[in-house]
Specification:
The complex is a heterodimer of chains A (about 170) and B (about 375). Chain A contains six helices and no strands. With about 170 residues, chain A is mainly alpha-helical. The radius of gyration of chain A is 20 Å and the shape is globular. The chains are: A mainly alpha (about 170), B mainly alpha (about 375).
Chain lengths: ~170, ~375
């Protein structure tokens, strides 16, 4: 095995272990911390594939996202002063299982049916200029559409959140 | 990506290790003396002398404090979440350390010369907040929790103006490079400012960057996550000894990291005013003089401006800084697209900067706290 392969296995096993920690941990806070470890591991995978831009985006987006997730978890769960673990699973468990299997199936089909450019042995190093050209020139219109969608969601979220203190 | 010449023709990995050790050691000494310098400066602003007893003019005070802190007992509250509590200082420290790895202190001198340098700095610094949340949630203390939640809200809000103001600079680097494509490489950005620093072209972006930086560092007047008089120190209230000093180390190291970063992006880094061909010692001194100036202004503001309220803080970010940073971005885009002269960039940005300063002064001197910078709602008014 080459050094890259060893590193790949170390991080692959780490990601799996941390993801298992997310699911099986008894405390919401621990789950969130395992989650950021797992997502950071995926970021390292991107570095191994020499797509630093994606890796940094992963860190930037999920660092903030997990923070917000922790805050939401804090607000939506009851903190038990005695330190007992709160019950996370409810009657929604089978639906969660169904949704998980569906997402996994979509991802697997997408991954297996795509013709990937470059192989793991000789990953293509993509310059940031190429990415920006594709994103802002070739796919400029879909990019703007996606931004508008996000903006609408943002405004909607603010309106929903504001309503309770309207009067 | 490596810098051009390894030190003494050593193998690449050993070269990297030596560079990291140099940066970390220098950072530690600088942090020790920043605590001393801050105490001295604050004392002078308040017409006191500051530390005077330990060594001449109290020069060994920082080291004496460090030894005292290491000797203190490492306490852990009984109801703390053990591993979250103990790992939190490391989780805050590592991102700050990583950002120091990409900063160019002189021409082609830093640990790594990343093509995505600017992006790396703000992507990795964003992870800092995870450690702060861990400290707040793991301490089992309400003050710590309040501090962490305040820190999270504040840092996420101010990250957006910070990033947009940096993007403004990255945009105008495109006008200077030969192929017309902007760059995110910090070393190249510094070299492009040989003739004039980008603060001349983008004063508004610099003001926004500076304000957002104060907020990201939780320095006054944005220090509500660590407000001593309200929540007795915020997220690190339960820490003592070596772990507490790790939080302090992180705070000062990130202050210096931000100062060097700001001096590279806005003040010309090592290239301005002595040019890219000057001696490396001159370049190093130039970078650190600019960074020191930024740090001194941060301390000056801390002693002068009273702390903001949380609603004023949020309003200022979302209603003033965000809009102005987007305006700057759009104005830059129009000017660069039509290839108008660079003086126009400086002019539009200066008008924006003047407007921002006018807004701050008008609201700071207003008697009531209504309007953009914070609407004060009286308690109980909604029930009637």
């Amino acid at each position: 095995m080459t050094a890259t392969e060893v590193i790949w296995w170390v991080f692959a096993l780490g990601i799996v272990a941390l993801s298992a920690g997310v699911v099986f941990s008894r405390s919401v806070i621990h789950s969130a911390i395992f989650l950021i470890g797992s997502l950071a591991g995926v970021g390292v995978m991107f570095v191994i594939l020499t797509v630093e831009f994606l890796a940094l985006t992963q860190f930037l987006i999920y660092g903030g996202a997990v923070t917000v997730l922790v805050l939401l978890a804090l607000m939506l769960t009851r903190a038990d002063p005695s330190g007992r673990a709160e019950k996370v699973n409810g009657p929604q468990a089978p639906f969660a299982l169904l949704a998980g299997i569906a997402v996994a199936a979509v991802l697997l089909v997408a991954a297996l049916s795509t013709e990937w450019a470059g192989t793991a042995d000789s990953p293509a190093s993509i310059a940031i200029e190429t990415i920006s050209q594709r994103l802002f020139e070739d796919f400029g219109f879909p990019f703007i559409l996606a931004s508008v969608l996000l903006l609408v969601a943002l405004v909607g979220a603010i309106i929903v959140a504001r309503q309770e203190e309207g009067e | 990506m490596l810098f051009a010449d390894p030190l003494f023709d050593l193998p690449a990995w050993l070269d990297a290790v030596i560079r990291i050790v140099i940066v970390v050691l220098a950072m530690t000494v600088i942090v020790v003396y920043s605590t001393y310098g801050e105490r001295k400066l604050v004392a002078r602003f308040q017409q006191r002398l500051g530390p005077m007893r330990t060594g001449p003019w109290g020069l060994w005070q920082g080291f004496a404090d460090a030894i005292k802190l290491v000797g203190k007992e490492d306490l852990r509250p009984k109801n703390a979440d053990r591993w979250v509590f103990e790992l939190a200082p490391y989780a805050t420290f590592i991102p700050v350390l990583l950002t120091l790895m990409v900063l160019p202190f002189a021409e082609n001198w830093g640990v790594r010369n990343l093509a995505l340098g600017v992006f790396f700095v703000f992507a990795i610094l964003g992870l800092n907040i995870v450690g702060i949340l861990m400290a707040g949630l793991g301490s089992g203390n309400k003050y710590a929790l309040l501090g962490a939640v305040r820190a999270a809200a504040q840092m996420i809000s101010y990250e957006i103006p910070l990033v947009v103001s940096l993007l403004c600079v990255v945009m105008i680097t495109g006008a200077d490079t030969p192929n017309g494509v902007g760059t995110l490489n910090l070393n190249t950005i510094a070299a492009l400012q040989e003739d004039r620093p980008y603060i001349v072209l983008q004063p508004l972006a610099f003001l926004i960057f500076f304000t957002a930086m104060l907020s990201e560092l939780h320095r006054a007047p944005f220090d509500i996550p660590v407000a001593e008089s309200e929540i007795v120190g915020g997220y690190f209230v339960e820490y003592s000894g070596i772990r507490w000093s790790m939080f302090q180390l992180t705070e000062y190291a990130s202050m210096w990291g931000f100062a060097v970063f700001g001096s590279v992006v806005f003040l010309g880094g090592w290239a301005w005013p002595f040019g890219v061909d000057s001696h490396w010692a001159v370049q190093l001194a130039t970078t650190f003089t600019k960074a020191l100036a930024i740090v001194i202004v941060i301390i000056w503001i801390r002693t002068t401006v009273p702390r903001l309220r949380i609603d004023q803080l949020m309003n200022f970010s979302w209603k003033v800084l965000l809009e102005l940073s987007f305006l700057q971005l759009v104005a830059n885009g129009i000017i660069l697209y039509y290839g108008w002269p660079q003086e126009l960039l400086a002019l539009t940005s200066a008008v924006g900067a003047a407007f921002l300063i006018f807004l701050i002064i008008r609201h700071a001197s207003a008697r009531s706290t209504k309007g953009l910078l914070g609407t004060y709602r009286t308690l109980g008014a909604s029930s009637s």
